[in-house]
Amino acid sequence: MKTKLSNIDIIKILILLFFVSGFISCKEESKSMVKKKPNIIFIMSDDHAYQAISAYNNKLIETPNIDRIAKEGILFSNACVTNSICAPARATILTGKHTHLTGKIDNHFPFDSTNVTFPQLLQKTGYQTAMFGKLHFGNNPKGFDEFKILPGQGDYYNPEFITNTGKIKIEGYVTDIITDLTLDWMKERRDPEKPFLLMYLHKAPHREWLPAPRHFKEFTKKTFPEPETLFDDYEGRGTAAKEAEMNLLTHMTYAADSKIYPEVA
Question: Which residue stretches of 163-230 are H helix?
């Protein structure tokens, strides 16, 4: 016996098929979205003043690659931090917590290793994680499958690195070495089937501001414009400004501020 469908019945069936196909499509799309997790590359240069990034000001130097990132992403024109000291800032980045909660209130107090870091959380969701460069914690990083980090401040020339399996020493200039380690991991050792977090952390341009030997000729003879506050006596300034260790008269030393080591001059 044949059943004759009315126009209304046909419309109902079409609507039902539309919702079923839509549900299946959304479900498949949802699955693909869950599978596709973003790769994360975190790049940091240490103590890098905004005046030395030409996206902000090109009086000192041109930084075209950083400028491209700023142009294609975000340029911070009004930003601040709760603690700008090296290690405390890194602890906050890794945990999302204020320094009194991480234990790392300055470069000397130890990081409270009971804190959970965001790389640990990413690992639990299937991320492969790696860190290369400067951490300056006094602790090995938590939540990284592979790391090669400088002990403390590290050296500009022929630096040592702390790794998952012990210490190694690599000849060369620290910026080049950190870059090579990072690229090698990206090209040779990361698992292409997994999303990844890569932390690429430079020592430069932290004091003592020592360049690669290939730059000696250019920068030892280059003249930079003096900042307006070069000889500021801090009169009328607040306590924090007066007590900061950035005074030319009392805080510059040969060991910390020479641009070239005597043995390589």
Answer: 174-184, 216-219
- Enumerate the β-bridge partners of residue 45: 202
- Residues 230-253: tens digit of each pLDDT: 777 777 788 887 777 766 667 777
Structural domains for the chain:
38-80+116-214 (3.40.720.10)
Over its C-alpha atoms, the chain yields an Rg (Å, rounded) of 26
Q: Among 121, 118, 143, 127, which residue's Cα sits nearest to residue 36?
A: 127
CA angle 37, 41, 83 (to 5 degrees): 115
28-83 residue pLDDT tens: 555 555 568 999 999 999 989 888 999 998 888 899 999 999 999 999 888 888 88
Active-site annotation, residues: 86, 136
Beta strands in the chain (DSSP E): 40-45, 128-134, 146-150, 160-163, 166-169, 196-202
The neighbouring-strand residues paired with 169 are: 160
User: Which pLDDT tens digit goes with each residue over 189-205?
Assistant: 999 999 999 999 999 99
Cα(147)–Cα(177) distance, rounded to whole angstroms?
14
Strand 128-134 versus strand 166-169 pairing type: unpaired
